[in-house]
Specification:
alpha+beta, 25% helix, rod-shaped, three-stranded antiparallel beta sheet, four-stranded antiparallel beta sheet, Jelly Rolls
Length: 217
C-alpha cells in the first residue's frame, strides 16, 4: 500500500506549509479559560437566570473555580461574607460545552470577639455606646434608642434592651452587603466554533436536576 504525499519545494511552498500548520495549531484543542463576573446584593441564595456563555467552547466538562470580593458591608461587625458559586446545569451545543447556568449563595456571620469592634451594648456608658454606633454607621432607628436610655452608665437592663434591638434589626442591615464574584471555567477548548450558537434548550442537557428559585433576602 502506498501513501500519497505532496511535495513542497522553494520558498513559496515552505511559507504555505508554515501557514497551514499555524492554522491547524490555532484551531486545535488546547487548554483555555473563560471568566465571568457577577455582583450580588444582600444575603441568601439565588439562581442566575441567564447562562454564562463561555469565550470558547469546551470539549469536556470544564473545571469551575470561583472567588469573591467584598464591595460593601453594612457595618464592621458583620464584614466577612461566606460565598459560593455552583453550576446547576451545563448548556451544550452538540458535544461542546458552551455555557453554564449557575446559582450563588452569600451568608455572613458575626465576627468572634477580638476580631470585631464592640457593639453599643458592650460599652459602659450611653455616650460611648452612641459614639460607637455612629462609627459603625448604624441606622438612626437603632441609634435613637440610646438617648432614651440616657448617656450615663448603662445598667444591665439598658444593655439588654440594646442587645434585643440589635438582634431584631441587624438582619435588615445585611441587605446592604455587596459581593463581587469571579467565576473561571477551565479545560480543553477549541476556537473554530463560535459560542454565539448557544441555542439549545438548557433543560435538554442538565448537569443536575434544576433547582427551584430562591430569591436573596
Amino acid at each position: 500500500m502506498s501513501i500519497a504525499t505532496s511535495v513542497r519545494s522553494g520558498r513559496a511552498a515552505g511559507e504555505r506549509y508554515r501557514m497551514e500548520r499555524s492554522a491547524v495549531a490555532e484551531n486545535a484543542a488546547r487548554l483555555a479559560q473563560s471568566t465571568s463576573t457577577l455582583r450580588t446584593f444582600g444575603i441568601g441564595s439565588i439562581i442566575i437566570a441567564e447562562p454564562l456563555v463561555f469565550d470558547t467552547p469546551f470539549t469536556h466538562e470544564p473545571a469551575v473555580m470561583s472567588g469573591y470580593a467584598l464591595a460593601k458591608a453594612a457595618n464592621d461587625v458583620y464584614q466577612l461574607p461566606l460565598a459560593s458559586v455552583g453550576v446547576r446545569q451545563w448548556v451544550k451545543k452538540g458535544d461542546l460545552f458552551t455555557a453554564a447556568l449557575v446559582y450563588v449563595s452569600v451568608f455572613t456571620s458575626e465576627l468572634p470577639d477580638g476580631l470585631r469592634p464592640l457593639k453599643p451594648a458592650e460599652y459602659k456608658s450611653g455616650r460611648e455606646a452612641y459614639n460607637a454606633g455612629q462609627r459603625l454607621g448604624l441606622p438612626n432607628e437603632y441609634l435613637r434608642i440610646i438617648p432614651e436610655l440616657g448617656m450615663g452608665d448603662l445598667s444591665p437592663t439598658d444593655k439588654g434592651i440594646l442587645e434585643a434591638a440589635w438582634d431584631e434589626q441587624s438582619p435588615g442591615w445585611l441587605k446592604d452587603i455587596t459581593v463581587v464574584h469571579s467565576i473561571t471555567f477551565s479545560g480543553v477548548a477549541i476556537k473554530d466554533v463560535s459560542p454565539a450558537g448557544v441555542d439549545d434548550d438548557p433543560a435538554a442537557t442538565p448537569r443536575t436536576s434544576p433547582l427551584g428559585q430562591v430569591v436573596a433576602e
